[in-house]
Amino acid sequence: MHAWPASEVPALPGKGRDLRIHDTATGGLVTLDPGPVARIYVCGITPYDATHMGHAATYNAFDLVQRVWLDTKRQVHYVQNVTDVDDPLLERATRDGKDWVELAEGETALFREDMTALRLLPPKHYIGAVEAIPGIVPLVERLRDMGAAYELEGDVYFSVESDTHFGEVSGLDTAAMKLLSAERGGDPERVGKKNPLDPMLWMAAREGEPSWDGGSLGRGRPGWHIECVAIALDHLGMGFDVQGGGSDLAFPHHEMGASHAQALTGEYPFAKAYVHAGMVGLDGAKMSKSKGNLVFVSQLRRDGVDPAAIRLALLAHHYRADWEWTDAVLAEAVERLGRWRAAVSRPDGPSAEALVEEIREALANDLDAPAALAAVDRWAAGQASAGGADEGAPGVVSRAVDALLGVAL
């Protein structure tokens, strides 16, 4: 599977700062020191509907992570998956009378278009669950053969008790885990499981549903968590720098994935930091496909909204915050974009060196994009009120906003 084209990232004078970011597993800020190549895995979409603002906010956050790393002169090895076979996708295809493959391909193509328009840097490896199945099957067989998994009526489950670190990603107690498991794709009430929290690794073929050759597992399809584990281990290995996604993935998805990988390899941790973006709401509820309360990036683009304004609307909120999408949020972003473009269109302005360092410091401090935007606002206000004698300043600001915030002025 191919990703989307990369926009050019301008080189800036000087060097950025190492990223301090909130780690869900420890509950506090950690300073990341990736070495010359930073490794990041971000969980991708289940492609049964277009890219909504919740998706865009999450991927915008991890685009900032990449940009901070690039500014420190590191290379970035970014991997993202596409869950192109799963129950929600199959259910939507049945509801709409569509072929599930056609639905997945169409929505994935639209997602690529949205990511391109928002100028989000693409992953080096963009892998679908279906194409990963040949690598998933051996992992499930290995877990079963080592006693970390077991069969139940043809399905194969992972035993969470096989990982002594289970629970350390989310920090939740058992009662909370059971509730979230039931809400987020698990089956804690199924009779015969060794532990109600045990997640499915391989689902035996069901009538009328797609299935693949699973070797000694029989025909079927992979569970949700093992998909990302197989892709991450293949392309990044253990101990990569950041596992990212929305806050609703901390449990069960990232918790289970970490345990799968740690049981498989005997190594710890799966990722050095678990980073989670907040939820975007609409009309008082989390924006979600199941509720249907969605604002789509593609629809805003069709309505003539500049993608740079959409991106500024996202950047106006701290990535870990839960926030509400409103018409006022977008209007403020459109107005800000206009002020910034007017400011950098002038031939000279206030010195930009201090501004570049302010943006760098804000982003290195747990991706504080609102503070970075406020810094640019102050420079633009100074430009409007007093101008300046630095002929190169507007160009420097334009390049810095592009390189560090992904906004083309």
TrEMBL record:
One GO cellular component term: cytosol
Cofactor annotation: Zn(2+)
Reactions catalysed according to its record: 1D-myo-inositol 2-amino-2-deoxy-alpha-D-glucopyranoside + L-cysteine + ATP = 1D-myo-inositol 2-(L-cysteinylamino)-2-deoxy-alpha-D-glucopyranoside + AMP + diphosphate + H(+)
Motif ('HIGH' region): 45-55
Motif 'ERGGDP' region, residue numbers: 183-188
Binding site for L-cysteinyl-5'-AMP: C43, G44, I45, T46, T58, N81, V82, T83, W224, G246, S247, D248, V280
A molecular function (GO) term: cysteine-tRNA ligase activity
GO BP terms, alphabetized: cysteinyl-tRNA aminoacylation; mycothiol biosynthetic process
Binding site for Zn(2+): C43, C228, H253
Main enzyme class: ligase
InterPro entries membership: Cys-tRNA/MSH_ligase (IPR024909), Mycothiol_ligase_MshC (IPR017812), Rossmann-like_a/b/a_fold (IPR014729), tRNA-synt_1_cat_dom (IPR032678)
tRNA synthetases class I catalytic domain: residues covered: 39-334
E.C. number(s) listed in UniProt: 6.3.1.13
Free-text comment on the cofactor: Binds 1 zinc ion per subunit.
Oligomer and partners: Monomer.
Name of this protein: L-cysteine:1D-myo-inositol 2-amino-2-deoxy-alpha-D-glucopyranoside ligase
Lineage: Bacteria, Bacillati, Actinomycetota, Actinomycetes, Kitasatosporales
Gene of this entry: mshC
